[in-house]
Design brief:
CATH class of the largest domain: Alpha Beta
Structural class: alpha/beta
Radius of gyration: 22 Å
Amino acid sequence: MEQDNDASTRRKVRHICIFTSAHPVGDVRVYSRMTCAFLDAGYRISWVGPERLLFGPQDKRDPRIQYHLFRDNDSRRKRLMASWVAKQTALRNITNVDWWYCPDADAAAVAEQLKTRLGGRVLFDIHEAFDKGVIDRWFGGRAPLLVKWLVRRRIAQICRRADVVTGVNQTVLKGYGSRNGDVVVTRLCAPSFFSKGYGTPPEAPTGKMRVMHGKASAGVGTEQVLDGLEALRPEVMRGIEITLIRMPGYEKTFSVDFRKRVEAFRKNGQVDLVEPVPHMRMPALMASHNVGLIAAQRDFGVVALPNRLFEYMAAGLAIVAPSYSKEIVPIIENEKIGLLVDFEKPAEITGALEWLAAHPHEVAAMGQRARQAFLTTYNWDKEFEKLLQTMRAVESSVAV
């Protein structure tokens, strides 16, 4: 054992290049989870990607990372060229790399080219169903079926060439077929800092029941949530406040009438519209809440296993989640930590809010069970260790 430890100590520091064509430096999964975990595991990190800020001036670069950023542009033409620009940036600046961590399909394809010139292995992270949400957003709605099929086929090819493929859940990974290489699921579990400082959740909510909805967005059911809130009996509505996070592009995403509606709720104390905060500050924002909503509609919610689920669990919140989610439903039911509703039916949202408001002790008990499940099972340390072991096995099996 002592000889093994000595050999491990002498081994060189491994170098991972975060190679992205689209993700900002403050991205939750790419930076707060993956990159920080690699740093904690002793890896040296460089970052090639767009000079894009997720939270505006609140974003700060990590001094432990060597950044090689290129100018970003929101135009589609620039986005299509981003992987080529990233490749040129890497060729100018990156050496002695052991792994290319790629959270974008086009970046993973380019990394396969780079590894033939610069060495290293490719870790392709499938963080969402690319042939659904991403491509639909590009088409401003439903993308043609042929386009979706072509995207799935191309991503399946990229998966077969990558050294390791990881993804947020098994449902998403299955959509891109089987492969001969190593595949590991790393769910979007919250980092350990999310559970620090919460202590024991109160026995029951006091005062208003505060409900965290998260990002105000058409794709995550914001309008349906407000419809459900509006249908509450007045005496129940007065005891509930829903928190919406006003993300960049809020004015473009929602109509004037919708924003007026939000403002009316805000003035009456039923909605708290807050500015976005960096991920490290989310625990403080969640600390005053009792319930967390995952209001994704079917186009995203069926395969979704979002980071918010695990962040709510870490914060000790009762959870209301989509009844049609293949990944979320088993967790909610097995751990007894919340309610399941159809978030495309505002009447069911109203019913859930009514029930939660009438059962504060049950809400607190759900939150306590959620936090305990996070501490024992659904935390990022356990998820990341699976990925790390897979990468080490690949490193040991074949020398670069």
